[in-house]
Design goal:
The protein is built from 15 helices and 13 strands. With 349 residues, it is of the alpha/beta class.
């Protein structure tokens, strides 16, 4: 009997048994059976698929130790195009290509192994490089698409152009599109000098590296409702993020409660939406009104717009949190990105 078959992946205590084997290999106290277990490609792949972030680097390091070559942990390097495989060329044959780390990629990789078109060793190496990449400035999460369905988004405020470029370049090398939020024009220009292919929206302060046209992945429409023109930057951020994340997105501007007839004129649009994002400053009353008109989730975004007693958006935030409309959830002040991100997840359910 093959020694690795004595450990059934997924059975009680299997991970502890494998841990002990790998520790003995790394400490140079491994038996012949230990080395056989680590060398068994199909067994290693089953472990890696079950818990890729944990097992992939450990198996890669242990197997390099057995082979007499000590390498740096694989997850410290970005996954190059030759280490990812795609069957989207229409031929059904796995070919090298750039692709983000998501469930489709994992499935295609394993199918290629099953068909014999991809060897186990390179599949393990590819999986080992997925969880994150250590760079000079950050530990970049290249596994987020797999876990959450959406790639990592970079918060640009407070970061230098070099830091943003470093993270952006790493995500692009991993095959992910990159969205950077809260980027001032001078920072955006500096980043675009370092990384080609950027598309900057000055009103939304969004910097995008990815396809010009993003396919629609949501099941319905996201409608962004704006109380007043002064809320425009937050509205632009919500709209831009929503569209870049694959939602059909519509906008109703300047329909605040001071002239509620403007809102009621678009009642059909409100009721046809699958998710609504409602942006308002001042006293923050608009989400409650919209919530009372629709049977869909409403994501309220308070803005920092208003006179003294609005307290930089605190009044709107508290008003939205204490709304009697029970279909309302509230994000932080001026957080158009957060509202669009949650709306995207709802729209894909």
């Amino acid at each position: 009997m093959d020694s690795s078959s004595q450990i059934l992946v997924g059975s009680p205590g299997w991970d502890l048994k494998v841990e002990k084997v790998i520790l003995r290999v790394l400490s140079n106290t491994a038996s012949t059976e230990d080395k056989q277990i680590v060398s068994d490609g199909s067994f290693a792949l089953r472990c890696v698929v079950r818990r890729p972030r944990y097992w992939a680097p450990l198996f890669a390091l242990a197997r390099s130790r057995i082979g007499g070559e000590r390498r740096r942990l694989p997850f410290r390097h970005p996954c190059p195009p030759s280490d990812t495989f795609s069957t989207r060329n229409g031929s059904g044959v796995a070919t090298p290509g750039r692709q983000g780390v998501d469930r489709d990629h994992i499935r295609e990789l394993l199918e290629a192994v099953r068909r014999g078109e991809q060897d186990v060793e390179s599949a393990i190496e590819s999986l080992a490089r997925m969880p994150f990449v250590d760079t000079t400035h950050a530990r970049v999460d290249t596994h987020r698409s797999l876990r959450q369905g959406l790639p990592e988004v970079v918060f640009g405020l407070g970061k230098t152009p070099e830091q943003i470029a470093d993270v952006t370049r790493t995500l692009r090398e991993a095959g992910d599109p990159v969205l950077v939020t809260r980027v001032d024009p001078d920072i955006a220009q500096a980043v675009e000098r370092e990384v080609a292919g950027g598309d900057y929206d000055s009103e939304a302060r969004l910097l995008w590296f990815g396809p010009a046209e993003v396919p629609i992945l949501g099941k319905g429409s996201v409608v962004v409702v704006s109380a007043g023109t002064a809320d425009a930057p937050v509205v632009a951020e919500a709209v831009g993020v929503s569209r870049r994340l694959g939602n059909k997105t519509e906008v109703l501007r300047d329909v605040g409660v001071a002239g509620v007839h403007r809102l009621l004129a678009s009642l059909d649009t409100l009721r046809e939406a699958r998710v609504l994002i409602v942006v308002a400053g001042m006293e923050g009353a608009l989400p409650s009104v919209v919530g009372g008109l629709v049977d869909k989730p409403v994501i309220a975004v308070p803005t920092s717009i208003g006179y003294g007693a609005s307290l930089g958006g605190i009044a709107a935030l508290l008003g939205m949190l204490t709304s009697c409309a029970s279909n309302i959830s509230v994000v932080n002040i001026d957080n158009g990105f957060g509202a669009a991100h949650v709306a995207t997840l709802i729209n894909r359910l």
